[in-house]
Amino acid sequence: MCICVARTEMGFGSRSLCCFLVAVSVIMIACICSADELAGHVNKSTSTMKWKDKQRKCNVFEGQWVYDDSYPLYNSSACPYIRKEFDCLKYGRPDHRYLHYKWQPKECDLPRFDGEDFLRRFKGKKIMFIGDSVSLNHWQSLICLLHAAVPLSNIIQETNSSISTFTFQDYEVSVMLYHSLYLVDIEMEQIGRVLKLDSLKNGKTWKQVDVLIFNTWLWWYRRGISQPWDYIQEGDKIYKDMDRMVAFRKGLMTWANWVDSNVNPKSTRVFFQGISPSHYNGREWNEPGVTNCSKESEPISGETYPSGLPPAAIVVEEVLKGISKPVYLLDITTLSQLRKDAHPSSYNGFKGMDCTHWCIAGLPDTWNQLLYAALISL
Ligand SMILES: *[C@@H]1O[C@H](CO)[C@@H](O)[C@H](O)[C@H]1NC(C)=O
Ligand SMILES: *[C@@H]1O[C@H](CO)[C@@H](O)[C@H](O)[C@H]1NC(C)=O
Ligand SMILES: *[C@@H]1O[C@H](CO)[C@@H](O)[C@H](O)[C@H]1NC(C)=O
Ligand SMILES: *[C@@H]1O[C@H](CO)[C@@H](O)[C@H](O)[C@H]1NC(C)=O
């Protein structure tokens, strides 16, 4: 079941410190497909038009965090869907400033998230997050944001082997999560579990979806007991292991080829979520000796993260550049790096130290605000 798999994954996350989850970033590949076509009937309010004009000149991923009392965007205690891993308030997080930060792009303002508008635009559509537990985190935030906008609407929940779906019945909008650690396949064979760098069979299900938001990174450097495969296969060759960054690039290339040969840009919008950073290494933000996020209650001020972008950023940038279909990089890396204060640390339902995932309400709401901004402006 999806939930159990995700829980196991999270357990590993807390134990094996996902120090490798550093970050990625960069480029926004211009998207030429028409959102109107996708969204069906679109009610273009004037504020949307203004936003579109401004957005053309503005990189929304460059900016800083500012304290704003009108945040958070919803009362997380009134969202009944938050898993115990992310519900920081419920598990007693004493400092609340982390809830009140707003992402302020340098050259424009983000439109405020309007859940009802979102649901109206996407009537009859399916939105799917595909990836590891960071996708679960992102998906849960979107469900809370939408639920807060229409708290009395009917919501149906369904879960089967790898897909969890929340359907906002009155709007016929499905918000789905497809659990996949690497996007490419892991198969059980006689020799053991094989990570197949050039095989992507799950794509059949993805093709029917209107908005796809992909993410993978967290698991590529896992070793030992938390490594969920025994061999890596590429073509006819079987390896016991290989340089993980090389494997990551090959896996992403397979995904990129899948996008190019399978996605119809007229009916499906594709996002790549980039890489969500963890905070276990204080040297990255000039606090050597700090080994977790337990004492962090403030974001890093300013626009840059002291240690800069990680090498994986370059890999993502290069792979996305090679895709000919429109793919939008939801470039959350730097803005998330700045939020060392936004992880659950020990304020979660399993009491482990978690500086990999994010509190809900919290940072993933901004990811969804950026997703919404992209969806209404493209
Ligand atoms: C567009 O939205 C506005 C405000 O939400 C509403 O008053 C108007 O009737 C809508 N127009 C159409 C064509 O749906
Ligand atoms: C948040 O929701 C909870 C549960 O519905 C409620 O008890 C609480 O008063 C709400 N808080 C605010 C600030 O609205
Ligand atoms: C799982 O759910 C999805 C979406 O509701 C559906 O398309 C798919 O056929 C289901 N798979 C199985 C095995 O039931
Ligand atoms: C977290 O860091 C604090 C000091 O910064 C340390 O005392 C504590 O042992 C660490 N906890 C874990 C679980 O690593």
Notable traits:
single chain, 378 residues, alpha/beta, Rossmann fold, 7-stranded mixed β-sheet, 4-stranded mixed β-sheet, 29% helix, binds 2-acetamido-2-deoxy-beta-D-glucopyranose
Short description:
This protein has 378 residues and is α/β, with parallel strands linked by helices. The protein has a single domain (49-376), classed as SGNH hydrolase (Rossmann fold, 3-Layer(aba) Sandwich), CATH 3.40.50.1110.
Q: Tell me, briefly, the overall form.
A: globular
N-end to C-end Cα span: 36 Å
CATH H-level homologous superfamily name: SGNH hydrolase
Ligands bound to this protein structure: 2-acetamido-2-deoxy-beta-D-glucopyranose
Membrane topology: Single-pass membrane protein
Domain Trichome birefringence-like N-terminal: 57-109
Main location: membrane
Subcellular location: Membrane
Task: Give the secondary structure arrangement, pairings included.
Layout: H1 2-15, H2 35-39, H3 46-56, E1 63-67, E2 101-105, H4 115-121, E3 126-131, H5 133-149, E4 155-159, E5 163-168, E6 173-179, E7 185-189, E8 192-196, H6 203-206, E9 211-214, E10 231-234, E11 237-239, H7 244-262, E12 269-272, H8 311-321, E13 327-329, H9 333-337, H10 363-377
Helix pairs in contact: 4-5, 5-10, 7-8
The structure holds 2-acetamido-2-deoxy-beta-D-glucopyranose (4 copies).
